[in-house]
Design brief:
heterodimer; A: about 270 residues; alpha/beta; Rossmann fold; 6-stranded mixed sheet; 4-stranded antiparallel sheet; 11 helices; B: about 290 residues; mainly alpha; two-stranded antiparallel ribbon; about 70% helix; about 5% strand; globular
Chain lengths: ~270, ~290
C-alpha cells in the first residue's frame, strides 16, 4: 500500500463532522466557529471550564438548539437544524447534563422510553439485558422509581437509557457531575468498555480533564466558544498548558520562587 | 337510610366532578397550566350528547350518541392544541390561563347561539328508572354514572401504566427536555393529551345531562367545583382527582341536608381550603418527591 493510499484511508470521512458552527443565546454568541471531527469507533473528549460552550455544542449537535451558521454532518448527511426526535432516529443519543431521568417512572420504564423510536420488541429486550449486564445495580432496582436512585445510579440509568436507542454516536454531557471520584472511575471504566465492546462512538464533554483524557482517544479544548487546542489524548496529557490549567499540575517546578501565573500559550 | 340515599346521589355526582377534575389534571400534567375552559368543554359535550341522542334532534341510540360526542370533542381538543395553543408554546403559563378563560367565554356564547338558554335534559333509555334495594332507591342513571366512571378509570389506568404511548405521556410530563432527547414527539403527545381530556369531558358532559339539565352557563360553576376537586386531590395526580371529585360530590348534599342553608354551596370550597391548610400539596401530592 502506498503512502498516498494510506493517507486517503486516514482521511476517511468522520462519523460526525462539525464545521464553523456558530450558536447564539439571544444576542450572546455561545459558539464562535467550532469545528470538530469524530471518527467512528473513537472516544472524543471536549474539555473546557464553565461557560466555555461545551453543553451548547452538545445541544446544537443533538438538535435541541438551532445553529445560526456552520454545518453538522453525520455519516456524510447534513443534519444541522433538525429536531431531536429526528436525530435519535439517525443514531444520535444525547445523555444530558445532570442525568434528567424520569423521576416517577421505574428504572425499567425509563429504559423502555430510551427505546421509544424502536419497534423490535425482541431487540429491545435483548438490549435491556445488555444494559443490565453493564449496570447490575439497575437490574436490582428495576421496579423502583428512578427519582429514588442515588446520583451515581441515575447517571448509570441515563447512560443505559441512551444506549437503548442503539445509537451510532452517543453524546455524553458531563457524566462526572456531582459524583464521588470512585464512582467517576467506575462509570468511565464502563464507558470505555461500551466503546470497545459495543462499538459506540462517543463524544464526551467533561470538566474533569484527567479522567476524560484517560478515557478518550482525542481531545479538544473549548474556551469561550472557540476550539483553542486539539490533539490526541497523549499529546494533551503531555502538554504544558493542559497540565497547568486543566490538570492542576504546575509545569516543572524548577523555579520555586515563581510568583506569577503562567500565561496560556494560545492567547 | 336517609344517609345511604344521600351517599348514592353524592357518589354519582362526585363521579362527574371526578371525571372533570381528571381533565384538569391531564392538561396540567402535560402543559403545567390549568385549562379554565374544561367545564365549558364538558357543557359542549353535554349539548353534543343531547343533539345526537334526543328525539327532537338526531335520535341516535344512546351508545352511538355518546361515542360520537366523545370523538368530536376529542378532535376539538386535538385541533385546539394543534392550532391555537401551540401558537403560544413557550410563552409564560399566564398566557394559557387567559387564553383558556377567553375560550370558555367563546364556547358559552356559541353554545347559547346554537342551543339556546333553556335547560335541556338528555333522553336516556333509562330515564326515570329506579332500582329498589330494600328501602334504598337507586336511580339507574346514578348506577350508570358510577359504572361508567369506574370503567373509564380502569381504561385510563391501563393506558397510562401499560401502553407505550401512555408511559411516553408520563415521561414527557415529568421531564419534557429528556423526553425530547429520547425521540418522543412531545408536541404531538401534548395534542393527544388534549384530545384525551376532550373525550373525558364529553363523557362527563353526557353523564351530567343524563342526571340533570344542561344550559350554556352550567360549565362555569361546575368547572370551578371540579377544579376545587382537582386541587383537593393534589393537582397532578389522577387518582387524587377522582378522590377529590368524590369528596366534593359527597360533601355537597350532606352539607345541604344537615347544615344551615347555603352552606352546601360553599362546602366544596371550604373543603378545598381545609385541605390546602392541612396538606398544602393536596391529598396525593407528588411535589414533595420531586428532586432537581
Amino acid at each position: 500500500m502506498s503512502a498516498v493510499q494510506k493517507d486517503a484511508m486516514n482521511d476517511a470521512q468522520p462519523l460526525l463532522q462539525v464545521k464553523n458552527l456558530e450558536a447564539f443565546y439571544g444576542p450572546v454568541m455561545a459558539l464562535r466557529g467550532v469545528s470538530i471531527d469524530v471518527f467512528e469507533g473513537k472516544v472524543v473528549a471536549i474539555l473546557g471550564a464553565n461557560g466555555a460552550g461545551k453543553t451548547t455544542l452538545m445541544k446544537t449537535i443533538s438538535g435541541a438548539l438551532a445553529p445560526r451558521k456552520g454545518s453538522i454532518t453525520l455519516a456524510g448527511e447534513a443534519i444541522e437544524g433538525r429536531e431531536p426526535d429526528a436525530l435519535v432516529r439517525q443514531g444520535i443519543a444525547h445523555v444530558p447534563e445532570g442525568r434528567e431521568v424520569f423521576p416517577f417512572l421505574t428504572v425499567e420504564e425509563n429504559l423502555t422510553m430510551g427505546a421509544y423510536i424502536r419497534r423490535d420488541k425482541a431487540g429491545i429486550r435483548q438490549d435491556m439485558e445488555m444494559v443490565y449486564d453493564y449496570f447490575p445495580i439497575l437490574l436490582e432496582r428495576r421496579n423502583q422509581p428512578a427519582g429514588t436512585l442515588s446520583g451515581g445510579q441515575q447517571q448509570m440509568l441515563a447512560i443505559g437509557r441512551g444506549l437503548m436507542s442503539r445509537p451510532s454516536l452517543m453524546l455524553l454531557d458531563e457524566p462526572s457531575l456531582g459524583l464521588s471520584p470512585l464512582l467517576v472511575q467506575e462509570i468511565f471504566a464502563i464507558v470505555r468498555r461500551l466503546n470497545k465492546e459495543q462499538g459506540v462512538t462517543l463524544l464526551l464533554v467533561e470538566q474533569n480533564a484527567q479522567v476524560a483524557l484517560n478515557t478518550a482517544d482525542h481531545g479538544y479544548v473549548l474556551e469561550t466558544g472557540r476550539i483553542v487546542m486539539d490533539g490526541s489524548a497523549e499529546e494533551l496529557l503531555a502538554s504544558d498548558d493542559i497540565r497547568e490549567f486543566y490538570l492542576g499540575q504546575s509545569a516543572g517546578d524548577d523555579r520555586p520562587e515563581k510568583r506569577w501565573k503562567r500565561k496560556k500559550t494560545w492567547r | 337510610m336517609d344517609i345511604l340515599q344521600l351517599l348514592v346521589s353524592g357518589i354519582a355526582n362526585g363521579c362527574i366532578y371526578g371525571l372533570l377534575a381528571l381533565g384538569f389534571v391531564l392538561i396540567y400534567k402535560a402543559s403545567e397550566a390549568v385549562n379554565f375552559a374544561q367545564g365549558d368543554m364538558m357543557m359542549l359535550g353535554a349539548f353534543l350528547g343531547v343533539t345526537f341522542i334526543n328525539t327532537s334532534y338526531a335520535d341516535l341510540p344512546f351508545l352511538v350518541g355518546i361515542t360520537l360526542a366523545a370523538l368530536i370533542l376529542g378532535l376539538f381538543g386535538y385541533l385546539l392544541d394543534r392550532f391555537v395553543l401551540r401558537a403560544i408554546f413557550g410563552q409564560p403559563q399566564f398566557a394559557m390561563v387567559i387564553l383558556t378563560i377567553a375560550l370558555g367565554f367563546l364556547i358559552r356564547f356559541v353554545a347559547g347561539v346554537i342551543w339556546g338558554h333553556d335547560p335541556t335534559s338528555l333522553e336516556t333509555p333509562f330515564i326515570g328508572l329506579v332500582w329498589t334495594v330494600g328501602e334504598l332507591m337507586i336511580p339507574v342513571v346514578d348506577a350508570v354514572i358510577i359504572i361508567t366512571t369506574v370503567a373509564l378509570t380502569a381504561i385510563l389506568y391501563f393506558f397510562f401504566a401499560r401502553t407505550r404511548l401512555g408511559v411516553a405521556m408520563q415521561a414527557s410530563s415529568q421531564n419534557q427536555m429528556a423526553a425530547y432527547y429520547m425521540g418522543i414527539p412531545v408536541k404531538r403527545i401534548n395534542a393527544i393529551v388534549w384530545a384525551l381530556s376532550g373525550v373525558v369531558a364529553a363523557i362527563a358532559g353526557v353523564m351530567f345531562a343524563a342526571k340533570g339539565a344542561v344550559e350554556p352557563s352550567v360549565g362555569l360553576l361546575f368547572g370551578i367545583k371540579a377544579f376545587a376537586a382537582a386541587v383537593i386531590g393534589g393537582l397532578g395526580s389522577l387518582p387524587g382527582a377522582l378522590l377529590g371529585g368524590l369528596l366534593v360530590g359527597i360533601v355537597e348534599p350532606f352539607a345541604g341536608r344537615y347544615l344551615p342553608s347555603g352552606v352546601g354551596q360553599i362546602a366544596p370550597y371550604v373543603l378545598m381550603l381545609l385541605v390546602l391548610i392541612l396538606r398544602p400539596g393536596g391529598l396525593f401530592a407528588q411535589i414533595s418527591q420531586k428532586k432537581v
